[in-house]
Each structure stands twice: as structure tokens, then as C-alpha cells.
Automatic annotation (TrEMBL):
<dbReference type="InterPro" id="IPR014782">
    <property type="entry name" value="Peptidase_M1_dom"/>
</dbReference>
<keyword id="KW-0645">Protease</keyword>
<dbReference type="Pfam" id="PF01433">
    <property type="entry name" value="Peptidase_M1"/>
</dbReference>
<keyword id="KW-0732">Signal</keyword>
<dbReference type="InterPro" id="IPR027268">
    <property type="entry name" value="Peptidase_M4/M1_CTD_sf"/>
</dbReference>
<dbReference type="GO" id="GO:0004177">
    <property type="term" value="F:aminopeptidase activity"/>
</dbReference>
<feature type="signal peptide">
    <location>
        <begin position="1"/>
        <end position="23"/>
    </location>
</feature>
<protein>
    <submittedName>
        <fullName>M1 family metallopeptidase</fullName>
        <ecNumber>3.4.11.-</ecNumber>
    </submittedName>
</protein>
<dbReference type="InterPro" id="IPR050344">
    <property type="entry name" value="Peptidase_M1_aminopeptidases"/>
</dbReference>
<keyword id="KW-0378">Hydrolase</keyword>
<keyword id="KW-0031">Aminopeptidase</keyword>
<feature type="domain" description="Peptidase M1 membrane alanine aminopeptidase">
    <location>
        <begin position="378"/>
        <end position="584"/>
    </location>
</feature>
Length: 813
């Protein structure tokens, strides 16, 4: 894995083909052998001065640095942002840059964007004849189309100038903008430019986005979640140069680290949550709120900075006055914020890594619709996340960690996350939530706050490899969730990916984000399950945890690629894992190991007096033929019994009778043995152990360790793990010899008894095969209530009811 390779950059292609058809310098032309343990030499990029063969940053590793100074104003009534920004760009690369690329993510909502023009129809199946069944189009789809056509969306960019006030030429390409520099930017130099921009904020519930506003009809207020809200520098990297692939929706954002100074002007009664530390609390918070915030630093449970009663009072009426909130953030790769008069706000200090480490403020912002669910669990889940993730990586590196409730189900940014679960308002005025909603809130807060570690600090390229942040993060949120309460069904066990693993509608994990067929199981569940198996089954916790933490610390504030992760995990654990990456990340194989047969063998002693007696016992143990059994039952006499005077040698000696010739042969055999051979044979005969040959088939194609549970006649059980390398010479069929003591005969064998390898068929894991448990449900067949035709003569006599009246059950049917 650490050798120089032939194919440069192969890992950066969308690998939708299995590993057996990848371009390779090695070609198998004879027989049917497939090398599942072949090294990834032809796939991984050649190590260089930027990225070493060990998977760590090379001696000349570099990355760009970008600082932003932004003034932004929220027009609540128009639901529009207007802003100006100054950007300082430092060129740390060894290349001279003639132009810069910026991301204009809001342009994805323009009617002529690539995303909109390539959107496919998602209605029900079409039929040529409209009479039998109409094609369905949801009201949500119609709502989206209407909003998009009624509003002018996307960025408006103006006044793009360099630091001398000279205009810069810009070229907009879909969700990207190229700025041509007036002077080439040489290595080690920096440049500064400014611009004005504005856009109309989308209604998230209507459009379906990663940010936007949510309108509450009953109180007339909005929650604004602002992300991807300013033109941002695209990443310029050592492995791809400009990462200027259009934003199509699935592939998220690859960005550069820098410092932010952001002033946010909003209605004076709004509460703002944002990336960074609030720099002007005395100007925007009351003395009481500032005192509460100070008190929250040292409390066991969260303290309300803005109480529910205060938030409800804010909801009653708006204001024409404004306040400007000033936030500063250092060494972050993005900036997001939220604003609403509906927010209540709680906080709790978290002391990590000893009292000498900076205090982190965990904070939540949510409306009354969040109810007790948010009051109890949001901020506590933030703290729990930091406790767990820091064990696997590094101390949380920022001063605040925030969870904000709004229309976005779950999104992450430095120091701030957007999370969606709500409570249900009941008829009695109370608010309740189901276990699923509780699990959703705790799970999504853990997941999104976990993203502040991956990829907001360990800065992987989300546009290309979604799994590098979603998969790693899903693995860790699975750890945190089960450490919160393992009885809650988190859906993160290997068994939970089985249905996807055996499905046909999938692509390899190493597929570019926008080409993935089923993003959730592909980028989240499958890699998370793979890492869970790597930790619990293959490496063990000690080796895995050491290697994973090494990866996180090596690439903190840097930009790793898949090769860096694969190489680090192998180099730090000391275990060859190329077969594992190849199977789980580069193929669509699945795990299905079948235990086909178990042979019980007994060692021949070579002593005819022992071995022939054993053969006689084996013959006697065979079932009696039905013919013989019935003749005995009918007391039929045999011919030899009726003619006893005609008895010969073979009537008194069977075919298992031992002769002296055979004994002489045995004695001769013993004399011909070397002393050590005689010793081995005598011990084997004396111990008389049980020998079993287990025959396995790999039906799924994915090679994995074989986990065995051996059940013995005395009621005891034993677990054994056969490493995956058993498949290295034949990936389809293998046999394994198992030897047990004389007093420990096997009665059954089970493969993967704890369901820890995502084996898609556990019924072929048992020998002998088990009776398969299932269920049956009794039901009463009801006649269809569907009308075959309209009875217009009768229906026209129906009284027209107002919207306030309720139809009878009969009419509703």
C-alpha cells in the first residue's frame, strides 16, 4: 500500500465499476482466480511531497487561507439579504494564480441552473391511456414549482473590485464565479478584493434546501436559517487544483480555512445564533441576559438566557428598529447564522481536557414548538457529543457549539448546527413527542455537532467523497448514541445495512456524491457499518482507536483524501487492510458466508484391532433396512437359521475380522517410524481427538473474517475468529479443520452468531440448519369499497356543506 503506483489520481474518478474491471497493470488470464487481497497500488495516487505513503501530510503540504469581513442586513419583510464583503486571499500554493473561483451556491435555485435543468420527473408511473389511472404529482412538488416561478432567486453580484478600487472581470458559470485578477498572484503572496451581493431567501418548506426561512401562520413570524449565503472561495488543492464542480445538491462544500469578522443587522427583537464568538454582547443583550450567560458557564443543567415567556412576548409584535450583532471566528472554513424573534435560548458550559483548557459554551436556540423535547435534550446532547468525539479525535477546538431549531432537518457548519425535530401540540394545549422524535432529536444533534469535527476541522472534500464526512461521522454518532442509551434503536449496527447490501440499486461507496443512487445508505450507513466492523471484529478497539485518532490529529485543520485515511488506518494499526477497503468501498459485493457442510473425522490408528472394530461399530450404527425390520417383526426365519448344518468360516467371522497378516503389517509400519513419528502417533491415538472439516461458500463476494460459535455436547460454547485471509487463494470456497478434545464433540456450528458482519442471509449460517421462525396473522377479508362508477343521479341530490361542517362517516367513505 505504501509503494509508488502507476495510475496517478485514479482515486479521484467516480468509481462506479467493481474492482475486477479497474484498469490494472496486472492481468489474470488463466483460470477463474480472483485476487480479493490484491494491494491497492494501481488505485491509490502516488505518494509525494504533499501526501506521504504513511497517509500523513508531506513535508511540503500546503493549503490556501481566506479571510472574510462581511456586513449583512436581513430584510425580514422582503425576506431578502443584502451585504458587502471584503476577502483576503493568501496563496500558499507553489503555483501562480491568474484567477480565483468562488462558489455561488444560491444560484442552484435559478431556473437555468444545471441542477434545475437536469431535475428528473418524480411522479408516479406514466400510462399511455389516462382513463385507468392518472399520473400523480404531489402538492409539495407543485408548491415548489410555484415558489420557484414566483420569486427571482440566486445571487445578485455587483462592484467586484480589487484593493485599489479597480474593477475585476467576473464570469459566472452556473453556481461558480471566476474572478480574473488584474495582476497574477504569485506563491506566498496575498490579494484583497471586495463585492456587494444580495439574494431573496428561499422558503425552505417550499423548496427543500439546506437553509432558508420558515413561516409560522399562527403568530406571523419566521425563523431564518442562513447558510451558503455569501460568495465563498472554492478550494484550490494539491490533488485537483480548483475544485470547481457545479453544486447539484448532493455534493456538499469544499472550502478553505480562514478568519471571519461578520456584522449581522436584524430586527431589534430578534435573537441571533452564529458561527463564532459574540463580540458585542453589551450592545445586543440585556444585563439580565448577560448575567444568565455568565451563570450558565458553571451549571449542571442548561440555563435559559432567553426564557420561554420572553420568547413568547417577542412573538407578539415586530419592530422597525434594528440591532447589529457582531461575531468573530478564527480558523474556520465556513460561516452560518440563524435569526428569529421566536427563539428561546439556553446554554451550559462544558469543561474539557482539564481546567487549564478553554471553556466551551453549549447552546440551543428554539421556538416554543420545540417544547420539553428541546429543553431537556438539545444542549445536553451537544455536551455528550463533545465528550465522545474528543476521545476519538481531539478536544473541541472552538469556543461555542450550537444547536438551532428551524425548517432544516439537519445541517452542520463551524460552531453551529441546524436541527429539525419538534413536539406535537395536543388538544389540551400540551406538547408531546414520540420515542422516534426523541431519538431523532438526540441523534441529529449528535450527528450535526459531530460534523464540526468531521469535516469542519478534519476538512475532507464533501463534493467528491460524501462518505469521508458522513460515513465517519455516522460511525461516531453511532458510538455516541449507544453510549447515551443502547436500548434506543439507533439503526447503526451492521445488521441494519443488510437490506441495502444485497440490493441491486447501489453503487460503490467511492462514487462521486452527485452520482450516488441512494445517498443515505451509501454514504452514511454502509461506511459506518464498515468502520464498526473494522473496530469490533477485525482490528479490535485498541488498534482501531489508536489509528483513527492518529488520522484525526494528523489532518486537523487540513484536507485529507480517501488515500490518506486508508493509508493512516493501515500504517498506524500495523494491519494490511487493502482487501477491506477494496471490498467495502470499491465494490458492491455483500457478505454472505454459507456454512455448507461439516464433516466429522476420526483419526485412523493404523492398529487393525482398533480400526476394524470402529468400522464394525459404524456399520452397526446405520439404519436397519425396512425389509429386514419388517421380516423380524413377522418372525421370519433366515435360511442360515434353518440350515445350521451348512455353516462356514464367513458365518462366524464378518468382513471386519482382523488377521495376523494385518497385524504383522501394522508392526512393520511401527518399526519403520522415526522416534518422533512414533511419539506423535502414540499421542494422537491416546488423545483420540475429534476432527471436523467445515466447508464454507462465499456467496456474496465480499471476503470477511469467519466468526464461529461452536456448541458442544456438554452444553458449553466457544467463539473463534478465522481471519479474512483464509479466502486469499480461493474467494469462493474454503475448508477449515477444527480439532476438539475427545470429551468435546460438536453438536452445532453458527457463523456470525451476533450478526456483526452484515451477513445478508443468517439462515445459511447454521449447521445443522435451524427451523426458521416467522409469523402468521389472521385477518378478515373485506370487500373493496371502491366505486366502479359515479352515481350522478343520486349524488346530485347531496346537500352542499360548508367548510366548517363534518361529513358523516358514510359520506366520507
Amino acid at each position: 500500500m505504501k509503494k509508488a503506483v502507476v495510475t496517478l489520481g485514479a482515486i479521484f474518478l467516480p468509481l462506479a465499476l467493481s474492482s475486477t474491471v479497474m484498469a490494472s497493470a496486472v492481468e489474470q488470464t488463466k483460470g477463474s482466480y480472483v485476487d480479493k487481497f490484491r494491494q491497492l497500488d494501481e488505485v491509490l495516487p502516488t505518494p509525494n511531497v504533499y501526501r506521504s505513503a504513511a497517509g500523513e501530510p508531506g513535508e511540503k503540504y500546503w493549503q490556501q487561507h481566506v479571510n472574510y469581513d462581511i456586513d449583512v442586513k436581513l430584510d425580514e419583510n422582503a425576506r431578502r439579504l443584502t451585504a458587502s464583503q471584503t476577502i483576503e486571499y493568501k496563496n500558499n500554493s507553489p503555483h501562480t494564480l491568474k484567477y480565483l473561483w468562488l462558489q455561488l451556491d444560491q444560484n442552484i435555485f435559478k431556473s437555468d441552473s444545471i441542477a434545475e435543468r437536469t431535475a428528473t420527473f418524480n411522479g408516479s408511473a406514466l400510462q399511455g391511456d389516462p382513463q385507468p389511472k392518472a399520473t400523480k404529482l404531489s402538492l409539495s412538488q407543485l408548491r415548489r414549482q410555484q415558489f420557484m416561478s414566483d420569486n427571482e432567486l440566486g445571487f445578485t453580484i455587483a462592484n467586484v473590485k480589487d484593493d485599489n478600487g479597480k474593477e475585476l472581470k467576473v464570469t459566472v458559470v452556473d453556481t461558480l464565479m471566476r474572478i480574473d485578477l488584474n495582476e497574477p498572484l504569485k506563491p506566498g503572496k496575498d490579494t484583497e478584493f471586495s463585492m456587494d451581493f444580495a439574494f431573496n431567501i428561499v422558503e425552505e418548506d417550499a423548496v427543500g434546501a439546506r437553509s432558508g426561512y420558515e413561516h409560522f401562520e399562527k403568530d406571523g413570524n419566521d425563523i431564518f436559517l442562513l447558510a451558503q449565503w455569501f460568495p465563498r472561495l472554492a478550494a484550490y488543492t494539491d490533488y485537483e487544483a480548483w475544485t470547481n464542480k457545479a453544486f447539484l445538491g448532493s455534493g456538499e462544500f469544499t472550502l478553505e480555512f480562514g478568519d471571519y469578522d461578520v456584522e449581522i443587522t436584524v430586527p431589534a427583537d430578534h435573537i441571533v445564533s452564529a458561527t463564532g464568538k459574540l463580540d458585542n454582547a453589551s450592545s445586543v443583550l440585556t444585563r439580565t441576559q448577560r448575567n444568565r450567560l455568565e451563570q450558565a458557564k458553571n451549571t449542571k443543567r442548561p440555563v435559559f438566557i432567553v426564557t420561554e415567556d420572553e420568547a413568547l412576548e417577542n412573538e407578539k409584535e415586530g419592530t422597525d428598529k434594528t440591532k447589529t450583532w457582531h461575531f468573530k471566528a478564527e480558523n474556520v472554513r465556513d460561516f452560518a447564522w440563524a435569526s428569529s424573534r421566536k427563539f428561546m435560548w439556553d446554554a451550559k458550559g462544558y469543561q474539557q481536557g482539564g481546567n487549564d483548557q478553554p471553556l466551551v459554551m453549549a447552546m440551543s436556540f428554539f421556538p416554543k414548538e420545540g417544547g420539553d423535547l428541546w429543553k431537556k435534550y438539545s444542549t445536553e446532547a451537544i455536551v455528550h457529543t463533545m465528550e465522545v468525539y474528543s476521545r476519538f479525535s481531539f478536544d473541541y477546538p472552538y469556543p461555542v457549539a450550537q444547536s438551532v431549531n428551524g425548517p432544516v432537518g439537519g445541517m452542520e457548519y463551524p460552531m453551529i448546527t441546524f436541527n429539525g425535530p419538534r413536539t406535537e401540540l395536543q388538544d389540551d394545549g400540551s406538547r408531546t413527542y414520540s420515542q422516534a422524535e426523541k431519538r431523532f432529536l438526540i441523534g441529529v444533534v449528535i450527528h450535526e455537532v459531530g460534523h464540526i469535527y468531521f469535516p469542519m476541522v478534519v476538512n475532507s472534500d464533501e463534493r467528491q467523497w460524501t462518505w469521508m464526512d458522513e460515513g465517519l461521522n455516522s460511525f461516531l454518532d453511532g458510538v455516541a448514541g449507544r453510549e447515551w442509551d443502547p436500548t434506543i434503536p439507533w439503526g447503526v449496527e451492521p445488521r441494519d445495512v443488510v437490506a441495502y447490501m444485497k440490493s441491486e440499486n447501489q453503487v460503490p461507496v467511492m462514487t462521486q456524491s452527485d452520482s450516488v443512487l441512494r445517498l443515505g445508505p451509501n454514504a452514511y450507513t454502509k461506511p459506518a457499518a464498515a468502520l464498526n466492523i473494522l473496530r469490533e471484529v477485525i482490528l479490535g478497539r485498541e488498534l482501531f482507536d489508536f489509528a483513527f485518532k492518529e488520522y484525526a490529529q494528523r489532518w486537523k485543520y487540513k484536507r485529507p483524501t480517501p488515500a490518506d485515511f486508508f493509508r493512516t488506518m493501515e500504517e498506524a494499526s500495523g494491519v494490511d487492510l487493502d482487501w477491506f477497503w477494496r471490498g467495502w468501498f470499491y465494490s458492491t459485493d455483500h457478505v454472505d458466508i454459507s456454512l455448507d457442510k461439516v464433516y466429522q473425522l476420526r483419526l485412523d490408528t493404523k492398529n487393525p484391532d482398533i480400526d476394524f472394530n470402529r468400522l464394525r461399530d459404524i456399520e452397526a450404527a446405520k439404519p436397519m433396512p425396512l425389509f429386514v425390520e419388517r421380516n423380524k417383526a413377522e418372525a421370519k426365519k433366515l435360511w442360515v437359521e434353518e440350515n445350521s448344518d451348512v455353516i462356514d468360516f464367513y458365518d462366524e467371522n464378518d468382513r471386519f475380522t482382523v488377521t495376523n497378516k494385518e497385524r504383522n503389517s501394522y508392526n512393520k509400519f511401527l518399526k519403520g517410524l522415526e522416534p518422533w513419528e512414533r511419539k506423535v502417533l502414540d499421542r494422537a491415538v491416546a488423545e483420540d481427538k475429534n476432527y471436523y472439516v467445515l466447508e464454507f461458500s462465499n456467496l456474496g463476494g465480499l471476503v470477511m473474517p469467519i466468526l464461529l460459535e461452536l456448541s458442544y455436547e456438554d452444553g458449553t460454547k466457544e467463539e473463534r475468529m478465522i481471519p479474512a485471509e483464509i479466502w486469499r487463494r480461493n474467494h469462493k470456497h474454503v475448508q477449515k479443520l477444527i480439532i476438539t478434545d475427545k470429551n468435546k464433540p460438536l453438536v452445532s456450528v453458527t457463523v456470525d452468531p451476533r450478526w456483526e458482519t452484515a451477513d445478508v442471509d443468517v439462515e445459511n449460517n447454521n449447521y445443522p440448519r435451524r427451523i426458521i421462525p416467522s409469523r402468521i396473522e389472521v385477518y378478515k377479508k373485506e370487500q373493496s369499497k371502491a366505486k366502479v362508477s359515479r352515481d350522478i343521479m343520486h349524488d346530485i341530490k347531496t346537500e352542499l356543506k360548508t367548510g366548517d361542517e363534518k361529513d358523516s362517516d358514510k359520506e366520507q367513505e
